[in-house]
């Protein structure tokens, strides 16, 4: 290894994902091994993603990380486990142009700088840890020339945050719970890529929340300890649902997909209620959105919208196609209008063409009013994001997007 003060770095972009069959409960807290399989859809990274730059240099004296511009500690066991696992798989790296040569054994001694940034507000409660750990592991694997496939990398990302393992792929992804004690078979696999079912449009309602919710990690621990419904769910309900969901996705069967997605979200929240003390992740606005969608689907000849809620009040709505999505957005904006001082550009983020098509000015067509029914009380939605299923992680070649300075390896 040359002794010069070089810095070598890689920048990657990784999507976030939303589960349609939920992961809730661990059988091993340290290795992060789940009690059931789960399935998710990866969200378009143009709208929701994490950008991470990882750098290595002989001049770094310790591992350091900055998250959204603020330095954070890497001492937690989840970071340490990911770093240890990925370091042990590093291989020889050579950059002849810069005269850099790193040997496999050097990775144990060399220190890393990591800078990570979400393109959506972290406080919105949109699975930022999933994209974050997936991006960390993916970027380090590229930097260290780790020769493993995305499924093997998913088993490392899983040790940062369970749901992160599903962010190593685009499209629809399954996390196999596995049954080995060491967790080596608890990996994510891609079911289909993002082109397979590209009619779907995803609208996220970021719902304001007054209270700080219990984290997924502690919430699911309490559910494992106290909820009988969770045991029943993991043993008797999810295995069959997983088979049915895989079929629905393969056949692009929206009716079955909606039935399973909504039922699984509702059962997950029922498990939270069955936990002692009970956990309430959804709030009145979340419940109003569920009612709106249920009414909408009943008024249509076949279901047109699926909903799912994670460990927070935000609604993730999956519309059958663009036509439904445009009408849905019109209905949502009617029920949850922006505050008078908020302009539409900052109230509906993501794919702007849907807002344009929705033509949000003017009176809501009677047909849509009939679908959503009376919605007297205005809810509290902070903003909406229009998105779709998206691709998996990529390395960004454009060095100007790097979050670390190419000479110093410090945040720009
Ligand atoms: C409700 O992956 O955040 O989003 O493994 O403890 O980090 P840890 O939990 P986390 O839990 C996600 C729970 C969920 C459902 C899901 O994504 O499957």
TrEMBL record:
It catalyses: (R)-5-diphosphomevalonate + ATP = isopentenyl diphosphate + ADP + phosphate + CO2. Gene3D superfamilies: 3.30.230.10, GHMP kinase, C-terminal domain. Residues 15-188 form the Diphosphomevalonate decarboxylase-like N-terminal domain. The gene is LOC104782317. Performs the first committed step in the biosynthesis of isoprene-containing compounds such as sterols and terpenoids. Belongs to the diphosphomevalonate decarboxylase family. Keywords: ATP-binding, Lipid biosynthesis, Lipid metabolism, Lyase, Nucleotide-binding, Steroid biosynthesis, Steroid metabolism, Sterol biosynthesis, Sterol metabolism. The lineage of its organism: Eukaryota, Viridiplantae, Streptophyta, Embryophyta, Tracheophyta. Its EC number is 4.1.1.33. Pfam families: MDD_C, MVD-like_N. This is Diphosphomevalonate decarboxylase. Residues 202-395 form the Mvd1 C-terminal domain. Coiled coil: none annotated. It comes from Camelina sativa.
């Amino acid at each position: 290894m040359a002794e010069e003060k070089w810095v070598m770095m890689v920048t990657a972009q990784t999507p976030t994902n939303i589960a349609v069959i939920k992961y809730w409960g661990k059988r091993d807290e340290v290795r992060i091994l789940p009690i059931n399989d789960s399935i998710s859809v990866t969200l378009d990274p143009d709208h929701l993603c994490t950008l991470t730059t990882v750098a290595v240099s002989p001049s770094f004296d310790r591992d350091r990380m900055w998250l959204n511009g603020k330095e954070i500690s890497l001492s937690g066991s989840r970071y340490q486990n990911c770093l240890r696992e990925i370091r042990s798989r590093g291989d020889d790296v050579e950059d002849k142009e810069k005269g850099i040569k790193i040997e496999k054994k050097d990775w144990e001694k060399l220190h890393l700088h990591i800078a990570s940034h979400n393109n959506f507000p972290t406080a919105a409660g949109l699975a930022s840890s999933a994209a974050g750990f997936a991006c960390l592991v993916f970027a380090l694997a590229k930097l260290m020339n780790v020769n493993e496939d995305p499924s093997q990398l998913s088993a490392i990302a899983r040790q940062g945050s369970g749901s992160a393992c599903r962010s190593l792929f685009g499209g629809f992804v399954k996390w196999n719970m596995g049954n080995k004690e060491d967790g080596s078979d608890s990996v994510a696999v891609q079911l289909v890529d993002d082109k397979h079912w590209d009619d779907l449009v995803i609208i996220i309602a970021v719902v304001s929340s007054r209270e700080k919710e219990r984290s997924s990690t502690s919430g699911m621990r309490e559910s494992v300890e106290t909820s009988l419904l969770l045991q029943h769910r993991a043993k008797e309900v999810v295995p069959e649902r997983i088979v049915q969901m895989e079929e629905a996705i393969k056949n692009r069967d929206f009716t079955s997909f909606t039935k399973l997605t909504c039922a699984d979200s509702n059962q997950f929240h029922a498990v939270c209620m069955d936990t002692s003390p009970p956990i309430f992740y959804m709030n009145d606005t979340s419940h109003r959105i569920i009612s709106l969608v249920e009414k909408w689907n009943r008024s249509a000849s076949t279901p047109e919208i699926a909903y799912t809620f994670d460990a927070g009040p935000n609604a993730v709505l999956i519309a059958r196609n663009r036509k439904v999505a445009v009408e849905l957005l019109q209905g949502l904006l009617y029920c949850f209008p922006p505050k008078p001082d908020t302009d539409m550009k900052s109230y509906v983020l993501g794919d702007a063409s849907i807002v344009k098509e929705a033509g949000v000015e003017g009176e809501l067509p009677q047909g849509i009013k009939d679908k959503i029914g009376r919605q007297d009380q205005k809810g509290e939605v902070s903003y909406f994001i229009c998105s779709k299923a998206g691709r998996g992680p990529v390395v960004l070649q454009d060095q100007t997007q790097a979050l670390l300075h190419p000479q110093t390896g410090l945040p720009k």
